[in-house]
Amino acid sequence: MNKLQGAIPSCLGNLTSMVQDGLTESQNLHSVYGIGGVYVDRSMIKWQGSLREFGSTLELVKIINLSSNNLTGKIPDNLTDLHNLIALDLSMNALVGEIPSNIGEMKELLILDLSRNNLRGGLPSSMSQMTLLNYLDVSYNSLSGRIPSSTQLQSFEPSRYTGNAGLCGLPLSKYCPGDKELEGPPVARENMDDGEERWFYIGGASGFVTGFWMVCIALIVNRRGRHAFFHVMNSLENWVYVKVMVFTAKVRRV
Q1: Residues 221 and 227 sit within 8 Å (Cβ to Cβ)
Q2: pLDDT score for 28
Q3: More confident call, 21 vs 110
Q4: C-alpha dihedral over 182, 141, 101, 96, to 10 degrees?
Q5: Judging by DSSP bridges, how do beta strands 50-54 and 43-47 pair with one another?
Q6: What is the CATH number of the domain that holds 117?
Q7: What does the pLDDT average to over 53-59?
Q8: Which of 18, 147, 219, 220 could join 226 via S-S bond, C-beta 3.0 to 4.6 A?
Q9: Which pLDDT score is estimated for 24?
């Protein structure tokens, strides 16, 4: 929340304590020997939605938070060299370009917030490798394409992807092309060409003729069935006749 301007320098990827595995005692910059003993630095950090105090483990916290500034340009590819970074927040800036394709190499990331920028392109497929990620927000950018298929990326709330009209796939309700057939009648005549329409009529006519003759043959061969059929038809005719006569008499009285 400063007024930082310009691009994020690529040399940010040279923060060795966030690249190397583990820390030696000589790298612990938060324990200072002074008069009266050891002074241990402490810091209050908003971590995973709550404010926490870090003291003896402060040197293990590897966070970059440049949110709410006026940063422009692209996210440096070198930033993904920080393999031990556990939180990266670049939200609410004016960053452009695409998310680095190899961002999935940051496998220790627990938090990634790139929301409210002007990022475009798709979510890199390498993000499916970020299995430790438990907070992701890329909302309100200009991202597009399919959300990479992985249990982790599908587990986040749809609101973490909102504001990107071109994004599709789970957990969003917007289907990607080919994921779901368009709903509608099986055969829409207005969408058929001449050849399809011709076969539509041929199929319908042949089906009607086949069904008609199957009924006729059944009645000819089966004597009892034939008598029962005509008995039902005769009864139906009498029932209709009576209903019509009753209705006509009521109309005449009115």
Answers
A1: no
A2: 42
A3: 110
A4: 140
A5: antiparallel
A6: 3.80.10.10
A7: 60
A8: 219
A9: 44
Q: Examine residue 175 and state whether it is found in any structural domain, yes or no.
A: no
Helices (H) and strands (E) in the chain, counts: 3, 13
Q: What angle do CA 85, 7, 15 make, to 5 degrees?
A: 30
Contact 192, 167 (CB under 8 A): no
Are 203 and 150 in a shared domain? no
Domain that holds residue 227: 189-253
Q: Does 173 reside within a domain?
A: no
Same domain, 17 and 109: yes
Number of domains within the chain: 2
pLDDT for position 249? 73
In-domain check, residue 227: yes
Residue 95 shares a structural domain with residue 212: no
Half-sphere exposure of 41 (CA within 13 A, CB side): 12
Q: Buried b / exposed e across 155-182, counting CB within 10 Å, b at 16+?
A: ebeeebbeebeebbbbebeeeeeeeeee
**Percentage of the chain modeled with pLDDT above 70:** 56
Give residue 36's pLDDT band: very low, low, confident or very high (50, 70, 90). low
Side-chain-side CA neighbours of 214 within 13 Å: the count stands at 6
Residues 63, 114: Cα–Cα separation, whole Å: 14
CA 207 distance to own-chain centroid: 44
Across the chain, mean pLDDT equals 76
* pLDDT band per the 50, 70, 90 thresholds, residue 42: low
Beta bridge partners of 72: 7
Are residue 147 and residue 38 in the same domain, yes or no? yes
Domain end (from 168, 201, 225): 168
Domain presence at residue 228: yes
Q: Which two tokens stand for residue 31?
A: 């324990």
